[in-house]
Amino acid sequence: MSTYDVAIIGSGPGGYVAAIRCAQLGMKTAIIEKYDTLGGTCLNVGCIPSKALLDSSHHYHDAIAHFEDHGIEISGDIKANLKKMIDRKQNVVDTNTSGIKYLMDKNKITIYHGMGSFVDATHISIAQADGKTEEIEAKNIIIATGSKPSTLPFIKLDKKRVITSTEALSLKEIPKHLVVIGGGVIGLELGQVYKRLGAEVSVIEYMDRIIPTMDASLSKELQKVLKKQGVKFYTKHKVTAVKAGAKEVTITADDKKGNPVEFKGDYCLVSVGRKPYTDGLNLDKAGVKANEKGQIDVNDHLQTSASNIYAIGDVIKGAMLAHKAEEEGVFVAETIAGQKPHIDYNLIPGVVYTWPEVAAVGKTEEQLKEAGVDYKSGQFAMRALGRSRASGDIDGFVKILADAKTDEVLGVHMCGARVADLIAEAVVAMEFRASAEDIARMSHAHPTYAEAVKEAALDATGKRALHS
């Protein structure tokens, strides 16, 4: 029987990063992956493939809607070749997953392909695809098995007409009418992909606004822009039934007044969140406890109820984000090595990769009001930037929330071009507990989208924005 200092179950961003850091710290490390390729949901059917399709559809949309403005004339029809887009997406995925394999080999991490399950707190049985079973021993074990798409109890996912994000990444045709249940990140991103390619898109959301966990101003701005792009929204609608036929799906919902309304589309994307995936792990044999939501209980060191077993990423509480899982993977590796790492969960940024993009870190206005915090707000519109005017990306804004007395930045909320990258400036500032004045005093290159951050900081420090 092979023995290891650390064995990781699951090779998504949390798992493979944990494995690399463990190996860097001198631990003999193994990683166990149920599927044939490494990378988990993020690389195979999540973050990476969805961004590949978002980029392809963005290029197509620019060609038909914006090229002429830039003096680019194309003769003949411009056509979207979905098969080529899907093929390119798969090539991106394959390149990334093979890159993870390279990193495992480089760091001398042993890879096991098969379904890992606990025999006890230090032994894992690995059921391989060919029917063979192998058992390994590990002093420490990290559970990083991620999550799967959630659904509603009355919805049957046939994966043909009623689909999840996984199937939406590999459709054989552009939908005529895609009905999206859920106005969160995944539904909006994939909805925009197919809207750009020519589909009618309707988003049904139970809450009173889309991206309901983010600052309300971001919800309002993104919905306004997406409506301009032709996406239809039905907020405060409660879906009550989904019935799939051979070529059509009928969705029934109660509207804001409780009256039943009906939607018909050729595809229905169910995007109502994700749930922890621990099926088949046999947690009880290792003495690992989970809560009523299926999340594995952990302490501040991310230890489970079995002290040598840790859990990270989507299987524990908190935002289901790849970069959160990565931070936790490093945290656990360094904890096992006897170091004293830390994670500030308040400073894990959130991003929506629509166009315009949406990004945020820290507290929302709603959270500050609820907590009774005395704060001030500064905001700057992207349309006032020379860079935005030059590129034609004039939608959105940057908003900075700061403590009314100390001026410390408490939250930053952005909507606009490249804000998925810009949010890192806010994270750095808040990690060092910067004030709005600190950001306002820093030189930002001109012309850039980042100038909106400086201008919002100037606005927060005393309505001193220079270009509005």
Which geometry do the CA atoms define? Answer: globular
- CATH architecture classification of the largest domain: 3-Layer(bba) Sandwich
The fold-level CATH name of the largest domain is FAD/NAD(P)-binding domain
- Total of helices: 13
CATH class placement of the largest domain: Alpha Beta
Uncertain parts: none
Taken as a percent bin, the fraction of beta residues is: 25-35%
Share of helix, binned: 25-40%
Distance between the termini: 68 Å
Radius of gyration: 24 Å
EC number: 1.8.1.4
Catalytic activity: N(6)-[(R)-dihydrolipoyl]-L-lysyl-[protein] + NAD(+) = N(6)-[(R)-lipoyl]-L-lysyl-[protein] + NADH + H(+)
GO molecular function: dihydrolipoyl dehydrogenase (NADH) activity
Domain Pyridine nucleotide-disulphide oxidoreductase dimerisation: 348-457
Summarize the structure.
By secondary structure, the protein is an alpha/beta fold. The protein is built from 13 helices and 22 strands. A hairpin with a 4-residue loop joins strand 12 and strand 13 (249-254).
Characterization of the model:
It is an enzyme of class 1 (oxidoreductase). InterPro entries: Class-I_Pyr_Nuc-Dis_Oxidored, FAD/NAD-bd_sf, FAD/NAD-binding_dom, FAD/NAD-linked_Rdtase_dimer_sf, Lipoamide_DH, Pyr_nuc-diS_OxRdtase, Pyr_nucl-diS_OxRdtase_dimer, Pyr_OxRdtase_I_AS. Residues 348-457 form the Pyridine nucleotide-disulphide oxidoreductase dimerisation domain. Its cofactor is FAD. Its EC number is 1.8.1.4. The model has no long low-confidence stretch (mean pLDDT 97). The protein is 32% helix and 25% strand. The strands form 5 sheets. Strands 1, 2, 3, 4, 5, 6 and 17 form a 7-stranded mixed β-sheet that branches. Strands 8-15-9-10-11 form a 5-stranded parallel β-sheet. It has helices at 13-24, 40-45, 47-65, 82-106, 165-168, 185-196, 216-228, 322-336, 365-371, 386-391, 419-431, 436-441, 451-460; strands at residues 2-9, 29-33, 110-113, 115-120, 123-127, 133-143, 147-149, 162-163, 177-181, 200-204, 232-234, 238-244, 249-254, 260-265, 267-270, 274-276, 309-311, 350-352, 357-362, 375-381, 397-403, 409-416. The relative contact order is 0.12. α1 (13-24) packs parallel to α8 and α3 runs parallel beside α6. The chain folds into 3 domains: 2-148 and 275-343, FAD/NAD(P)-binding domain (3-Layer(bba) Sandwich); 162-272, FAD/NAD(P)-binding domain (3-Layer(bba) Sandwich), CATH 3.50.50; 347-460, FAD/NAD-linked reductase, C-terminal dimerisation domain (Enolase-like, domain 1, 2-Layer Sandwich). The radius of gyration is 24 Å and the shape is globular. It is α/β, with parallel strands linked by helices. β5 (123-127) and β6 form a beta hairpin. The protein has 13 helices and 22 strands.
